[in-house]
Write a structure and sequence with these properties.
Membrane topology: Peripheral membrane protein
Strand order of the largest sheet: 6-7-8-3-9-10
CATH topology of the largest domain: Rossmann fold
CATH class of the largest domain: Alpha Beta
Order of helices and strands: EEEHEEHEHHHEHEHEEHHHH
GO cellular component, one term: ATP-binding cassette (ABC) transporter complex
Organism: Bacillus canaveralius
CATH architecture of the largest domain: 3-Layer(aba) Sandwich
Number of helices: 11
Helix content: 40-55%
CATH superfamily of the largest domain: P-loop containing nucleotide triphosphate hydrolases
Low-confidence stretches: none
Strand content: 15-25%
Family: Belongs to the ABC transporter superfamily.
Radius of gyration: 20 Å
Oligomer: single chain
Keywords: ATP-binding, Cell membrane, Membrane, Nucleotide-binding, Translocase, Transport
Amino acid sequence: MIKVSNLSFSYQQGSPILSAINLDFDTRTTAIIGQNGAGKTTFVKLLKGLLKPYGGEIFIQNLRVNDSTAAELAKTIGLVFQNPNEQIFKRNVLDEAMFGPLNIKMSTHTARQKAIEALEMVGLNDKLEVNPHDLSLSEKKLLCIASVVAMDTDIIIFDEPTIAQDHAGKERIRNIINTLKEKNKLVMTIIHDMDFVAENFERTIVLNEGKVILDGDTRSVFASKEILKNAHVEAPGITQLGEKLGYKETFLSVEEFIKMYKHVTEKK
């Protein structure tokens, strides 16, 4: 769905932000992780067409991003910003969710239908006439997710989706990711919540100083302790617990840990 070839970018000459990035993306749910300044946000802005590469190429499906505008790409790739206050500007929740679909030339009827479906998905269908600025930060984030989901793009990128979310909010976002995956959409995220990555994303890419230093299935990535340490990335809490207790397995969820613990204790 996305092909990145020898991508490089810098805001000023001599200070590269990204260097020689080569990646192919299919429909596996994919997390891009790394410490602040690793180049994650710059990378997704390049995918979205908000920035142009200094070198190399990006193809999204058959569209060359280098030659395309963000408006042209909007039908194919959607981005949910980290800060919802930078994305919200309409006077009620329904209009906010309809804006994206209308902007890519959906009919008013279809845009309304897609918006209401997306708002039901995030649990805001009972607040259609509420001013978005009267919502909590958690609800604003969910509204931004709904606004992008309603556009029905093949690719959706979440920037720090779990910010301000309690357990129920995270479960809702988990269900959204699973629903989108079932529709064969590519769901990507840039995120610092490693527990959420471990439980919800099949593939993980680690960026460090503008370069890809790890790329693989999430379990194998979190098993690469030394590389993660060098990139200043902490493994999920349950992964660290298993290691401290002497297990050789790399756990990605509490359920996995409990299952192994019960198996070991029953054998004793």
